Amino acid sequence: MSARYGMVIDLDRCTGCGACMIACAAENNVPPLPQATARTGLTPMLVRKVSNGMNGTARREAFIPIMCMHCEHDTPCVKVCPQQAVEVDKATGIVMQMPQRCLGCRYCMTACPYHARYFNWWDPSWPAGMEKSLNPGVAVRMRGVVEKCNLCHARLHSAKEKAAAAGKREIDPADYVPACVEACPTGAIRFGNLADGNDPASQEARSPNAFRLLARIGTEPKVYYKSKETWVRALAEANSGRTPETSPEVSSEVQHG
Amino acid sequence: MKVTRRDLLMWSAGAAAGLMVTPVPWKLLDDTSIWSQNWPWIPQPARGPVEVKQSCCTLCPNGCGMRLRMAAGWPVGVAGVSSHPISRGALCPLGFGAHQLNWHPQRLRAVRHRGGNSSWNEARTAFGKACSEGPVVIIDGYPGRAASSMFVTFAHKRGGSYRVVQGSETRALAPYESWSGVPASALGYDLENEQTIISFGAPLLDGWGSPGRFTRLWAERAAGATDPQLRVIQVEATFSRTGARAWQWVPVHAGSEAALAAGLARVLLEEHLVAARGPMPPLTLADAAMQTGLTADSIRELARTIAARTPAVAIATDNNPAIAALNVVLGATGARGGIVRKSKRVQPYVSADAVIPSTRTVLIDSSVPWDFVPQTDAEVFRFAAWDGGSSKADWLLPAPGFLEELTDVPTSPTSAIETYAVAPTLVKPSQEVQSAAQFLGGIEFTLTPTDKLIHARCEDLFRGRTGSLIGQEATPVAKLASVQKLEEQLSRGAVWVGEPLHPESLRCELKEWPVTTAFSHPGSWSTTWPEPVLPPLASKLYQESNLREPPEKRTA
């Protein structure tokens, strides 16, 4: 049976510590890039700070981790890629990026409604000797290709190998946990198979406080968010044509070209 | 056949036009691009057997449990250890990039003397000569280790003194030391039984204490609830990360925390919201309101809110005696859910902040990335793995880096129970390094080396027959067959956890409301914290995103 891997992120539990960002970069051999800026950096997992736009004691802030949403329906990046370098894996629902096919046209970055894709502007490099700390399960990607979250696909491979070695067809869910989920100190990110109604992540995705970013465009993202705060839930449709007075301020100035 | 100039031009133009309709140029362009993307010098991950080791983080005194994935003998990934009794599977963001720190460009790789290269022999000779000429002060950046015992013995033998660098969490516990006689390093916070926490600027959700302990607690008992089991009230002039996630943020004027603590204590005592355990502060409520920028009514309301849910405790960021006195009034000292005593063994430390009258030599063991810089005229020998505050030392001596030496991990400063762990050597030192303990052992041959001291500590634990060893499962020490078993499990990442002491083993006597100006640092031995050396991937947090301010913008 095919799985549909996804996440539910409880924004009321996110403290914006950034552990998920560092753990993601370390797991996926993302170089430190001392010359990069917010515009040219590589952050497959990016935590943005948002606020309700008020001042004084009425001010509220929250942190929203943004990564590839693994859109299920009419996946925008898949539709525009001229190289078939992006595809939705039928067995897992993971939107896969194949750097060997990518020619670096960056159409997919333009098409992505979540700005969750990044261009690899430089040859990957680390300070002398630091290559010994690279994760052997993940290839170092070359300059000139687009990068994004693949739900730590190497960990899925390891889990499959482990299951195969034990003579099993299905993986043990405990063996496949993406690095950001493992790193979150408050347990705000719940990962699982959304197609399995008994999976805790699947059940949380059906919570009345769960929502998806830009759900109105109909791409069926597999990353859900959860918050009891009304103003946080309203962010899901921010920048949807509403005036600044009615739309909560998004204080993050991160943009990607 | 004669080839004219016109023929040549026509042939060239035709060839160029023809080539453009073939795939050849595009294929060549593509191949060139792929070839140039895969230069042979582009780093590739090391190949080799993959294994998982368990240890403790040694980058700060909190000693969080760490699981390291090793490939070909090198750590390639870090994760938390869910069975760790204090960190409970969590790590700070820096911990996830810690395995790359040993190759940081600021790694200290050779002995340096006043900007020039030197050698270990010259350093040893110079240190021996300096010690014979006058008193030596040893400053320990990470007290409580076996190496610390060596420093104490060395200082004692040479007629010198031993000082420690106290973190803000330990400094905040200093007032109770003078009121109870119990060393600040033997105190901790019983957070697990708390119902209300009034944080006076403490970054509870941003690196305070062992990051996993409070964040896990907050996530389980406070996050997202309108009326949470654990109320976190953040008193702070600015809207911090902790303030943003707290149940209530109380903005006060910067520096008026002592006035608010006095105002709250006055309301608590006047309205009999607590049993009269402490002295009435001399500050009136109107004065407290004026100094803090709050109204008298809002201070009164805040005091009632605190008293409504007890146990409650106030947490400070420095040795502010007014905040400590508020805890005495609240009955939060020596009580469940308050400031408790965790150890009977710890000796009181002398802080490196205290003035030292005349010193010939200072040896600093600051192999943690957060360096301590004393302002002194003495000859300074600094052991450091990273070159954070290099310009302040006469001698810079390269110390072992992350997991490059065997060390023990004493109790976290904020913990309510005593713990002990061992971080074995997991990483081969990348260059010629020596720890301060090894260096002193080469000068004073009678010193017991750290591995034997760790063995002696394990023997003490085994003979004590108290507490449990928390590894894959909890095993009471009394059930262990031998001290070797205890040592073996500790070296595999298990943690010894002591029995909690009775809360009333701490008694604070406070007759008068303390003067609040007593907590400033002395100027003659003033300290600064230089820009920390962070794992290279930390730049993702402040350079490739706006999540945090870059280190150079942060004030010390």
Note down, in words, how this protein is organized.
By secondary structure, chain A is an alpha+beta fold. Chain A is 19% helix and 15% strand. In chain A, a hairpin with a 6-residue loop joins β4 and β5. The longest helix of chain A has 13 residues, at 153-165. Residues 240-257 of chain A have low confidence and may be disordered. Chain B is of the alpha/beta class and 556 residues long. In chain B, a hairpin with a 2-residue loop joins β2 and β3 (74-80). The radius of gyration of chain B is 29 Å and the shape is globular. The N and C termini of chain B lie far apart (85 Å). Classes of the chains: A alpha+beta (257), B alpha/beta (556).
List the helices and strands and how they pair.
The complex is a heterodimer of chains A (257) and B (556).
Chain A: E1 5-10, H1 19-27, E2 46-51, E3 61-66, H2 76-80, E4 86-88, E5 95-97, H3 107-111, E6 118-119, E7 146-147, H4 153-165, H5 179-183, E8 189-193, H6 200-205, E9 210-211, E10 223-226, H7 230-234
Chain B: H1 5-20, H2 24-37, E1 50-56, E2 65-71, E3 74-80, E4 112-113, E5 116-117, H3 120-133, E6 136-140, H4 146-157, E7 161-164, H5 168-172, H6 174-180, E8 187-189, E9 196-200, H7 211-221, E10 231-235, H8 241-245, E11 248-250, H9 257-270, H10 285-292, H11 296-308, E12 312-315, H12 321-330, E13 339-341, E14 361-365, E15 373-374, E16 379-384, E17 395-398, E18 407-409, E19 419-423, H13 436-441, H14 450-464, E20 468-470, E21 474-476, H15 483-491, E22 495-497, E23 527-528, H16 539-542
